[in-house]
Amino acid sequence: MRPASVSSSSHASFPRFWGKSGALRVSSELACVEVKRVCYRPPGTQHSLLNDVSLSLPLKSFGLVFGRSGSGKTTLLQILAGLSTPTSGSICVQHYGDDGSPKQPPETLLPERVGIVFQFPERYFLADTILEEVTFGWPRQKADFSTREQLASNLQYAFSAVGLHTISLEENPQSLSGGFKRRLALAIQLVQKPAVLLLDEPLAGLDWKARADVLKLLKHLKKELTILAVSHDLKELSALVDVSWRMEMGGILKEERLPV
Ligand SMILES: Nc1ncnc2c1ncn2[C@@H]1O[C@H](COP(=O)(O)OP(=O)(O)OP(=O)(O)O)[C@@H](O)[C@H]1O
């Protein structure tokens, strides 16, 4: 899937590899997360939830998948995060040269390089302190000391990135405001320094102030990260979106401009 051949007519005024200013991104480092012809049928069922899904998302851009409830949006994120295995198809990172041709064989996108923030992440907070919450999934064996050390050094970066650096790590996560709980959920993922961040309904359940807060934060994170979100909040997210797709019932994905 070469980027030069995939800009759809629905995005004609904003071709995939042109910045919003209209300036062509001149970079020999152009790379995309690519989902190629992914199908998914849960084990033991006859019903396919994803049908021949393909997409190409340039690194450090913001992609949005929208569509009706039950169409398969969350299923796609779960596959990208490595939580479910596709029945067929592949997920990789492809680098391109200036002429638009692939520079080297595609790299498999390893689940360790993908962070996912589920819908209503605060419902899954378990710990009594922010520190325990963030370190909950860290490896605990003696042999993992250097990994823990690395994660600890990432922690400061992650908390600064989401604007939580002034909050005490001893605070109870449940005492945070709605917007700050979402920041914490994002920080837990950022500590792992993911290449790709997946967000399932990042604004759901937040009041107007927290929504504005999270939008501002995503705008900031987009400068450094490749983000793929699933959402019904199209209008609010539209300013962030570089490329969008509609998921149709039956797990059929089509590139389409946001209907806002
Ligand atoms: N393990 C599974 N086995 C069978 N069906 C499943 C399984 N997981 C999800 N489904 C079904 O797959 C369909 C797609 O679900 P999914 O959660 O991906 O939709 P969605 O587009 O994210 O919906 P929403 O916008 O409501 O979150 C739904 O009909 C759901 O009931």
TrEMBL record:
<feature type="domain" description="ABC transporter">
    <location>
        <begin position="33"/>
        <end position="260"/>
    </location>
</feature>
<dbReference type="InterPro" id="IPR003439">
    <property type="entry name" value="ABC_transporter-like_ATP-bd"/>
</dbReference>
<dbReference type="InterPro" id="IPR003593">
    <property type="entry name" value="AAA+_ATPase"/>
</dbReference>
<dbReference type="GO" id="GO:0016020">
    <property type="term" value="C:membrane"/>
</dbReference>
<dbReference type="GO" id="GO:0005524">
    <property type="term" value="F:ATP binding"/>
</dbReference>
<dbReference type="GO" id="GO:0009941">
    <property type="term" value="C:chloroplast envelope"/>
</dbReference>
<dbReference type="Pfam" id="PF00005">
    <property type="entry name" value="ABC_tran"/>
</dbReference>
<keyword id="KW-0067">ATP-binding</keyword>
<dbReference type="GO" id="GO:0042626">
    <property type="term" value="F:ATPase-coupled transmembrane transporter activity"/>
</dbReference>
<keyword id="KW-0547">Nucleotide-binding</keyword>
<dbReference type="InterPro" id="IPR027417">
    <property type="entry name" value="P-loop_NTPase"/>
</dbReference>
<dbReference type="InterPro" id="IPR050095">
    <property type="entry name" value="ECF_ABC_transporter_ATP-bd"/>
</dbReference>
<protein>
    <recommendedName>
        <fullName>ABC transporter domain-containing protein</fullName>
    </recommendedName>
</protein>
<dbReference type="InterPro" id="IPR015856">
    <property type="entry name" value="ABC_transpr_CbiO/EcfA_su"/>
</dbReference>
<keyword id="KW-0813">Transport</keyword>
<dbReference type="GO" id="GO:0016887">
    <property type="term" value="F:ATP hydrolysis activity"/>
</dbReference>
